[in-house]
Amino acid sequence: MQRVAQCCCKKSSIRVSGSPDIHTVCHCDNCKQRTGSAFGISVYFKIDSIIERTENLNVYRFHHEAKNHDQERYFCSVCGTTLYWTISSMPNLIGIAGGCFTDQSLPIPGFSANSSSKYSWVSLPSECKIVE
């Protein structure tokens, strides 16, 4: 199975094959700020699952002090949507913003990360394993 994640203006995309290795909802402040929402949906695929990427992306690089790793976030140079990212502590995976997969449904996330920072009004399916 192939999946395509696209930005809001559809000028940037990434196409991957197969199923995600990790699918999580994250409630940390970093993900909330990245998405401008109550949580981030992160879908991780193996790097070799990438079939195609567009070139009209900018990158934001930073060191995450609390996790002690480096991140590179790739976002559309037209609309600003964060499309995907890499994390130095997971060099064989690429994280893709789950909300950017609009044409194919994703499975229920396997994990709810940083749940101590979850807003009290957010409820998740019972299948989501709670991790900190």
> How much is the average pLDDT?
92
Q: What characteristic shape results from the CA principal axes?
A: globular
Number of strands: 11
How many strands, what sense, and barrel or not for the largest sheet?
A: 8 strands, mixed
Largest sheet, spatial ordering of strands: 6-7-8-9-4-3-10-11
Rg of Cα set:
14 Å
| Multimer state | single chain
Helix and strand pattern: EEEHEEEEEEEE
Q: What's the helix count?
A: 1
Which structural category fits the helices and strands? Answer: mainly beta
Contiguous runs where pLDDT drops below 50 for at least 5 residues:
none
CA(first)-CA(last) distance: 31 Å
Which range does the strand content fall in? 35-45%
State the helical fraction.
under 10%
Write a brief caption for the model.
The protein has 1 helix and 11 strands, in the order βββαββββββββ. Helix content is 5%, strand content 45%.
What would you say this structure looks like, in words?
The N and C termini lie far apart (31 Å). The strands form 2 sheets. An 8-stranded mixed beta sheet has the order 6-7-8-9-4-3-10-11. 5% of the residues lie in helices and 45% in strands. It is globular, with a radius of gyration of 14 Å. The model has no long low-confidence stretch (mean pLDDT 92). The chain has one helix at 29-35, and strands at residues 2-6, 13-17, 22-26, 40-46, 50-53, 57-64, 69-76, 82-87, 93-97, 111-113, 129-131. It has 1 helix and 11 strands. The chain is mainly beta. The longest helix has 7 residues, at 29-35.
